[in-house]
């Protein structure tokens, strides 16, 4: 039984006294018997880790009410919505003769990551064991790409317009002003939950390079319409609502380097706990992650580690009360 | 044919025509199937195409349970090497 909307109502009543409140799609604790794995919280969000150019305005603090009703101090973080240090893309390859450099990547949650090159496009019918896949013109070899704003907006949505089935879906960020900024209210000091909370359908955090961390991509709907909503090599893509956003970690945003070889910080979850990359400097993963993919150490306190890109996710749940996205 | 029957027939044909275009998702549904008949927090595991093993616990993702890995990926080569070493 998920309490997302009941928590929102309760918190809304409490939030009438607060300065700022928004009902995030994340909730409080699930009614499960699990207990939180948080052992200690040594430090909260470090505003100085955000990349130059990632923010619309300087990070400030303000009073806020979290998903569990706790009134505390949050950082207001308004990000540009595009990476501060690179151009996004490419996404869809132009032809079935394209190599990996001309396209991005695809993942469907099953663990594997595929380069979207020409061969990938041709072999979709084998990959998904369905002869109906045909993302290219058999005469010219050109890949069917949603290369207009109209096409993008008709295909980059759960109910894909039937005329854009069998298309590689990409949207230019230029359609949306070069980036869709978002404002996050993230607790300055995380507040542990008594038991883990589900992620919900909304964004779950923000990266140090100024981009939203999205929940798993809706690959069911994408594949169900015989489309590939291509990601770039950094695991992000564009839709008309959010602009550019990440669905998985491929290492591009791990810029919060750690002195002891621990995996770098790549961003912060909306509950204020840091999100680190999957692998430590020695190439190994932690072996003591909890169900949310977090753990504690003496240097960093509790924090999360991102899953592999092929898993189409970052973390499994929240161990802290969540802030909000305005 | 009554209006109601005609309307029902049209509806059925419309549904079938939509089904002909779209097909059921979860094209790679192993992380979800790993949590069939499970509850939040239950242990789970699945394999990818290379037979690497992903072990974790069932978590709610967009209101469905799926297996979220929280242990290092067990590469199939490592598993094979271990089996050979134990022979």
What does this entry look like structurally?
The complex is a heterodimer of chains A (326) and B (87). By secondary structure, chain A is an alpha+beta fold. In chain A, 10% of the residues lie in helices and 23% in strands. Chain A has helices at residues 4-15, 118-122, 124-127, 149-155, 219-224, and strands at residues 60-65, 71-79, 105-107, 113-115, 167-169, 182-187, 192-197, 205-207, 212-213, 227-229, 236-239, 243-246, 265-269, 274-276, 294-297, 301-305, 318-320, 324-325. In chain A, the strands form five sheets. Chain A has an eight-stranded mixed β-sheet with strand order 11-12-9-8-13-14-16-15, with no helix packed on it. In chain A, strand 8 (205-207) and strand 9 form a beta hairpin. The radius of gyration of chain A is 20 Å and the shape is globular. Chain B is of the alpha+beta class. Helices cover 39% and strands 23% of the residues of chain B. Chain B has three helices and three strands, in the order H-H-E-E-E-H. Chain B has helices at 3-21, 30-33, 76-86, and strands at 43-47, 53-61, 64-69. A three-stranded antiparallel β-sheet of chain B has the order 1-2-3. The model of chain B is unreliable at 10-26 (pLDDT under 50). The chains are: A alpha+beta (326), B alpha+beta (87). The A-B interface holds A 2, 30, 32-34, 108-112, 128, 130, 132, 162, 165, 196, 198-199, 201, 215-216, 218-226, 284-285, 287, 289-293, 307-308, 310-311, 313, 315-317 and B 21-28, 30-31, 39-41, 46-50, 52, 54, 56-57, 59-63, 66, 68-73.
């Amino acid at each position: 039984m998920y309490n997302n909307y009941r928590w929102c109502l309760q918190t809304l009543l409490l939030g009438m006294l607060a300065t700022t409140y928004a009902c995030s799609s994340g909730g409080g604790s699930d009614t499960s018997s699990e207990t939180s794995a948080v052992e200690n919280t040594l430090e909260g969000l470090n505003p100085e880790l955000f990349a130059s150019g990632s923010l619309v305005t300087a990070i400030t603090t303000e009073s806020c009410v979290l998903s569990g009703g706790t009134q505390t101090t949050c950082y207001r973080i308004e990000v540009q919505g595009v990476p501060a240090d690179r151009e996004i893309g490419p996404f869809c390859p132009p032809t079935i003769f394209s190599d990996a450099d001309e396209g991005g990547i695809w993942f469907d949650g099953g663990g594997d990551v595929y380069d979207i090159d020409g061969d990938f496009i041709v072999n979709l019918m084998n990959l998904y064991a369905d002869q109906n896949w045909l993302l290219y013109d058999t005469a010219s070899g050109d890949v069917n790409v949603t290369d207009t704003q109209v096409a993008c907006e008709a295909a980059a949505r759960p109910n894909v317009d039937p005329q854009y089935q069998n298309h590689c879906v990409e949207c230019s960020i230029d359609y949306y002003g070069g980036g869709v900024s978002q404002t996050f209210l993230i607790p300055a000091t995380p507040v542990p939950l008594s038991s883990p909370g589900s992620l919900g359908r909304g964004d779950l955090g923000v990266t140090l390079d100024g981009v939203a961390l999205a929940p798993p991509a809706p690959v069911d709907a994408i594949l169900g319409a015989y489309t590939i909503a291509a990601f770039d090599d950094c695991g992000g893509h564009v839709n008309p609502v959010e602009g550019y956003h990440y669905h998985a970690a491929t290492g591009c945003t791990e810029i919060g380097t750690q002195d002891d070889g621990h995996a770098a910080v790549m961003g912060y979850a909306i509950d204020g706990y840091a999100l680190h990359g999957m692998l430590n400097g020695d190439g190994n993963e932690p072996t003591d992650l909890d169900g949310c993919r977090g753990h504690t150490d003496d240097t960093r306190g509790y924090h999360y580690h991102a899953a592999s890109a092929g898993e189409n996710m970052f973390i499994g749940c929240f161990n802290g009360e969540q802030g909000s996205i305005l | 044919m009554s209006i109601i029957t005609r309307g029902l027939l049209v509806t059925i044909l419309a549904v079938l025509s939509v089904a002909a275009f779209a097909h059921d998702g979860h094209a790679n549904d192993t992380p979800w199937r790993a949590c069939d008949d499970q509850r939040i927090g239950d242990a789970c595991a699945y394999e990818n195409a290379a037979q690497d093993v992903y072990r974790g616990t069932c978590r709610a993702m967009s209101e469905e349970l799926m297996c979220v890995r929280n242990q290092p990926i067990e590469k199939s080569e490592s598993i094979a090497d271990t089996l050979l070493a134990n022979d």
